[in-house]
Structure formats: C-alpha cells, structure tokens
Amino acid sequence: MHPLDNVIWQALTTRQARFAETCGCARKFVPEVSPLGGFEKPDDDGYASLARLVRGGTGAVFLDEPYQERPGWTFVVGAPLLQMVGDSSEFDPEKNGHALVELGEADSPEMLELTALTKPGPFGTRTHELGHYFGMRSSGRLVAMAGERLKVPGYTEVSAVCTHPEHTGRGYARILMNGVMRLIRKRGEIPFLHVRADNTRAIGLYQQLGFKVRKRMHFAVLRRSDEGS
After folding, report:
1. Average pLDDT over the chain, rounded to an integer
2. Domain check: are 99 and 152 in the same one?
3. pTM for this structure?
4. Residue-number span of the structural domain to which 68 is assigned
C-alpha cells in the first residue's frame, strides 16, 4: 500500500499514533485534535469499530468511493476531494518582505477564530500540536495561516491554509504554503494536501506551487445515530 492510500488510518497507525483513540479496526484522532478517523477497510467491521469511537457524536472519513448509506449512521455533509502531491516550487517567500510567525499554544484562540471564519477544514483546540504552523499578522492581528496536519512515512500534509476575508489578494497563502513546504522538504519529506474538487481557485494556486493530482477521493462527515448503538 502506498503511504498516501487510506491516509488517515496510516497516519494514526504510524507517525501520529500518539494522537489516536483505538477500537477494533478503527482509529480516530482525540476530539480536541481533529474529528478525522479511519479504518483498515470501509466494511461492516470498520464502521462498527468507528461507531464505538464516535459514541453518538460525529466523525469525518476519507473514502475512495462516495459514502453509501449504512444503518446507524447519518450523512451530514461530504464532497469529492482531490489528493495532490507537491513536486517543486520556484517561489521564495524569504524574498517578499513578509515575516512568517511560528504559531503555538498561545496563539490557539486566534487560530480557532480565523479557521471558524474562513472554514479551511476542521480545527480544534489541539490541532496545532500536529505539526508546525505559521501565520502572518497585520497590526498585531492574525490574518493568515498554514501548517501541517496528517503525517505518514515520507510525507506531510499542508493544511489549514486560510486568509481573513479583509486581507485576501495579497499572496499570503502562497507565501505561507511555501514556508511550510520548505520545512517539510528540509526533513527529506514530500508535501501533499487535500482540497475539495470544486475549489478551482485553490486548485489553481496549488498547481502553480507544483502540486499535482494523485487521486480523486471523497470525504464524508457522519453522525452516529441511535440505531445500532
């Protein structure tokens, strides 16, 4: 299996196992880190194991095929997803006069506020623990950020790329992504990311930065219903 196939499961069984809750053949990030979860196979045993981890709440999964209705689960939202892998980048953010600030626990409230506004994907009180996050400030206010999320052998995901609506159009996402990508490459790893298949603007930027589509996927946010509990 390629490291980026069934990537959430592989992250939670390798480099990010310390963030995992485990039950049978399913694993899920602890709630404060992420709602993402995965299983060895998307079969009855996999969903049953995940149900015991979700415990009446919600979870998010990446699938190779669109979600098919299953007893005991309610489909909340989902969409086609692209997995893209970084190739090369000629853009050098260090030459653009913008200071990248590394973000940490003290910045978590601002990171939560920015991601709640811009919705780049789920972001919790401990998501910043998954890797390095960088931000850009204007008048002391966090207005853009990007960082690392899923990690599997040889690869690290670029994630939480977002800019405050009042500060778009200034190239902040490109600058921040390159900062994250350079750090990943410095460790001898390859950057990758996930993006909604209908987000043409973001896909265009990622292609400019050297990302190429590796595979088409689907994400689904699921709520555990009472049936089958």
Report:
1. 92
2. yes
3. 0.92
4. 7-80+217-224
